[in-house]
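Support reply, case 0932

Customer input (verbatim):
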Amino acid sequence: MARAAPFRHPAFVATWFCVLAWVLPPDGAHAADPTPRSEVREQEISPELPASIAEILRAGPIRDARTGVLVSDLDTGKVVFARNADELLNPASNMKLLTTVSAMAILGTNFRFATELYVSEPARAGVVKGSLYLRGKGDPSLTTERLFRLARELRHQGVREITGNLVIDDTYFDAVYDGPGWEQDDSDRPYMAGAGAVSLNFNSVGIHVHPGESVGAKARVELEPDSAYLTVENLADTAPRDARGRVVASSSRDGDRQRIVVRARVAEGSRGEVLYRRISNPPRYTGETFRAVLAEQGIKIKGKVVLSAVPAELKIPIVVDFSEPLAVLVNKLNKWSQNHMSEMLLKTIGAEMKGAPGTWAKGAAAMEDFLADLVGIPRGSMVIRNGSGLNDTNRVSARQLVRLLEWVHRYSRIEPELLASLPIAGVDGTTRHRLGGTLAEGRIRAKTGTLQNVTSLSGIVDAVSGKRYAFSIVVNDYPGRLSQVLPRVDAIGAAIASEGSEGGSRSAIALAEPPPSDPSTPLDILRNRISTYADLGRVEESRNATFLRAALRTERDPAVRAVIADALYRSDRGDGSAAVAVVEAFSPGADVFGRLRAAARGMGRVPVLDTLFDLAVAGNTAAISQLVAVSEEVEEGDPLSAELADGFAEIGRTAPDELLAALEGASEGSQAAAIALLGKVIAEPHPRMQLSPIAPHPFNIAVAKAANGVDPRLATFARSVESRLGAGDDHKPQGPEATPTAVAP
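Our regenerated output:
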């Protein structure tokens, strides 16, 4: 196979021959046909499948989006359907297909990452007179538990004291921990964790927040793992037992340390909450954690944690800890779309193929060489900036993604490992809640991708007919909500999976469109259905989640849909998509809120409102907006007005900025009604809020701050809110002491 040699160093040439030996079949067949596949004439393929895909693409927001689609028969190589297949689009996490295939092909599926310990000199009488060195080589799966394993092995070797420093060597990668695209998203969430050669716990820290001993007492904040690298500012308090709470944590670099700030209201008697936040300096985080682990094992480090390379004269490590095989790591990576692991793999192939230190640029170059020389995707025909697909940095076409899958199927030896790593529709991973109860369940193995105005799905389908298809769907710049686009993406997958079944295409097309609304259920039956789904939502451990998702997909009564979404959220609170379903299924008009309220007469509280308040207090802006809209539907003197007023006071306490933004974006009627309700409970100290008699309500503080802020539009609105609340100057903060520690933003 004629190709340009990308490597000049003999060691790299040898490595590349190893790659060829790994990925090429025994007969030495060419890796890929460099000739682009042509579209197959319509009469050469069954017309039903492409016709159904075309119909799905003609409706809804996907019609007005930039959408690339390609479906090919893996056995014949024929293109079954193509639409804008060569347009370069943002693939989101479908980028991980390129990264993981490249890593397994280049490194081998049995590749293991090594973490090594060295000492300046052997221990004598338990004492190492010198330093202890920890060298990392890009292990994306190093955890605190693995550090304990290293420490125990040292202890078994008789080491009890290190007179020198604990030296962390992360020179296998460069010291740029944040990848291309990180600058577009100012977030401390763990999905934005950086990549260093010595990284721990996916470069994130667990923040455990639990109630204190009594109402008003400080909440208990603990870090996992804890070490001298981390400092904590605890602004979390214990709220009354029946209060809705919110935990807000931030993580930022503070010199050589990481500062964690926790603001929270945690209800007395509650189980508390665990959040994870990224850390900024991976080697120092790992080093200080390892030092704490060594101390727990009775091994004392007299010196400090320093960052430096292992001296060249130290050739043989005294302890080596290996990761699981790469195929096992890729399985975890693709099933749950783990960004940090993807970036670690990209830097690793850069270091292995281009020489240490590994960088994003070297990794992208190594990947592009592999894709050009073996897969047949020409250099420069796609844009590779990072390995995870984060933010707006990469550009790939649907045809290129399918070509990669075709190459894996025909020419590589990694197909079993790749297929095992892909989420199975309706079964596991990021597709566990998609296409359940349809013919596509269990038949589609595909990588998902989601960003703002981007969604993608690419993988392999075993159709009912027995044929195996490769497909890629990449949607950019869609109007409306993601929940309106996903059913159409899934419908295309269902159409492919149901190929060969009677009526399969019609069923797939039906998935693309929600059932027509029919708010005609009689009130007595509506009450019974509300009660039934409420009972199903009380079952723990998500036992009914799959059933409820199927019911949500087919229900025609909009009020019942809202109740089903509420039951789904209550049965599976850990799933963010369930919260989205509640907000989107509810509406303040007559068909949903009006009918739920009518059905609730004689039953108790209005269904779904409690969940909306829970979400709103936690800062969910869409839920807050729904409640603000509801306030316009409640007349003066209505018993529900007191419930809404108390609820708004709680939202204003825990999410004041979000509440102010929701009010600004509301209609004039909703805005006026909500502010009037707020004024009833926050203009004066309110016993339920547990504030001191002289402390202003946190919402008043937020309004005053906005009124004096730099945004002229928001400042004008905030001043109007101040006047309507009657807060006046008495409620404006006069300095740091004006904000009680009980306040959570």
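We compared this against your earlier run and they match. Two observations from our side: The radius of gyration is 29 Å. Residues 80 and 290 are 55 Å apart (CA to CA). Please reopen the case if you see a mismatch on your end.
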